[in-house]
Amino acid sequence: MIEIELSFSENWNNKLDCNCFSTIRLHNDRKYFVGNKMQVTLKGKIKPHPAVIKVVKTFYLHQLTEGMALLDTGYSLSETKKIIETIYKHKVTNINQQRFDFVILQWVKSEVLTKQLTIDESQSEAYPRT
Q1: Spatial CA neighbour of 88 closest among 76, 77, 101
Q2: What is the pTM of this model?
Q3: Strands 45-46, 20-26: parallel, antiparallel or unpaired by DSSP?
Q4: Does position 115 have pLDDT exceeding 70, yes or no?
Q5: Measured CA distances, 62 to 6, 33, 96, 123 (Å)
Q6: Domains (ranges, CATH) in the chain?
Q7: What is the mean pLDDT of residues 92-117?
Q8: CA distance 22 to 97
Q9: What angle do CA 26, 107, 74 make, to 5 degrees?
Q10: Which residue pairs, CB below 8 angstroms and at least 24 apart, start in 109-118?
Q11: How far apart are CA 78 and CA 62, in angstroms?
């Protein structure tokens, strides 16, 4: 699968520091679909690992929930709607008729790194043998 760039100008709610993160984007079913791998950039800098899309929910702005808003931006529903309106004011003619995608992604880390970080419970002092 081809990696498509997913750009962030801000790390809203510090979400890019988590194993999974969300983003709200203009609807694009050719770009945002489950299984698609994305190369993530923050302020023009490429993140060390790609991310894979796990969930896509298409919605209109009036369908945005408080939970989606809080998780994605760290702001209330009304503040998040204002942020979205500001971000897309020059790209969308009618924000209320525009479809959006709420996308949940998960970082794809190398198998070697994952194996290095895995705790062997039988050798850990936190899990003594009985």
Answers
A1: 101
A2: 0.81
A3: unpaired
A4: no
A5: 24, 22, 7, 52
A6: 4-123 (2.30.130.30)
A7: 81
A8: 22
A9: 55
A10: 109/49, 110/49
A11: 10
